[in-house]
Amino acid sequence: MIDTILRPIEFVVAWIMVQFHWLFSHLGMRPEGGLTWILSIVGLVIVIRVVLIPLFVKQIHASRGMQALSPELQAIQKKYKGKSDPASREAMSRETMELYRKHGTNPFASCLPMLAQAPIFFALFRVLNNGIRTGVGIGSLTTDLALQAQKATFLGAPLSETFLGTHLSSVKVVTALLIVAMSVTTFTTQKQLTQKNMPASALQGPMAQQQKMLLYAMPLMFAFSGVNFPIGVLVYWTTTNLWTMGQQFYTIRRMPTPGSEAEKLMKERQARKGTTPAADAAAVAPEPLKPSGQRQQPKRKDRAKGKSASGGTQPGSDASTGDESGPGYDTSANPNLA
Fold it and tell me: Looking at the domain assignment, is residue 324 inside a domain?
């Protein structure tokens, strides 16, 4: 079953690597050189990650959706806190799934890029371990190319060797360095996503604790399993982590999650540059006119007529304001009010 799934992916992985190997060889690099094959693996990473950009966008939307429903999810968890009977558990699960359906998201959607890369990762492992290491061709990776790659070294270490599968000190040193790089980039990527791009409300509660545990568990998991990976696979995983770091840095800087620390930093940058909406509105709005001299009082014709007919101003009238609603209203014009 696994062979049926991975075999076509192995052919695709081998074909992409061979195309990049051909390109770098024609650019003047040594076909049998380790750097040529390392760059071919880096080219494979670039192609795969470009293809996965739509999934990365879905991951962002799913992550934002999970953050938006976090208060409602915490309310459900608080509602059933301390209730361990089957009926309560079933009701809690039902309400949680209904909440996911209502918001059109789920916690697994944020893992799509990693899940999509898993078959590619294992296919590359098999190409390096079963193809290059044994010298057996796979698809476009002919036997001659497989034997050529078998002799290729990176800092003196063959690309198909593993930490536990060799006694060469160069392999152990290079593998250890790549494992550290892979673990550090994994930790940095997860911390970048969960700490800087999360609102304060999402940093509390059971889900936040689970994410914090994964933050430290995933690098350790890769560190312990990395001793079984060929050097070429470690190069692939470290390179894809660096791609993820750059991609997330750009996304978090340009489109941070509302209420997160990243959004606060973005607004501070915009304020310093004067590009905030408030600053733009203030720049466009005209300045209020400043008063010059004494205010000129308005005059009404009917008030002037009333004054000339009576020979003076009526008691209690206010000729300066001309306000008919106040005590200075001219009653001479209306006998019923006199």
Answer: no
Residue 27 pLDDT level (bands cut at 50, 70, 90): very high
Q: Is the pLDDT of residue 209 over 70?
A: no
The answer to whether the CB of 127 falls within 8 A of the CB of 145 is: no
Residue 21 structural domain: 2-69+105-270
Output the six-digit token pair for 228.
């079984």
CA 26 to chain centre: 38
Question: Is 322 inside a domain boundary?
Answer: no
Strands 157-158 and 153-154: antiparallel
User: In whole angstroms, what is the distance from residue 244 CA to residue 190 CA?
Assistant: 10
Does residue 198 lie within any of the structural domains?
Answer: yes
Kindly state whether residue 291 falls inside one of the protein's structural domains: no
As to burial, measured by CB atoms within 10 angstroms (0-12 exposed, 13-18 middle, 19+ buried), residue 322 is: middle
What's this model's pTM, rounded to 2 decimal places?
A: 0.66
The neighbouring-strand residues paired with 158 are: 153
Q: What residues contact residue 15 under an 8 Å CB cut-off, 6+ apart?
A: 139, 140, 141
CB 256 within 8 A of CB 268: no
**Gap between the Cα atoms of 194 and 115, Å rounded:** 19
Query: Which pLDDT score, from 0 to 100, does residue 328 have?
Result: 45
CA distance 288 to 180: 62
What's the token pair of residue 190? 């997860």
Chain mean pLDDT for the chain? 75
pLDDT digits (tens, 9 = 90+) for 63-106: 667 766 777 877 888 888 888 788 888 888 888 888 888 777 77
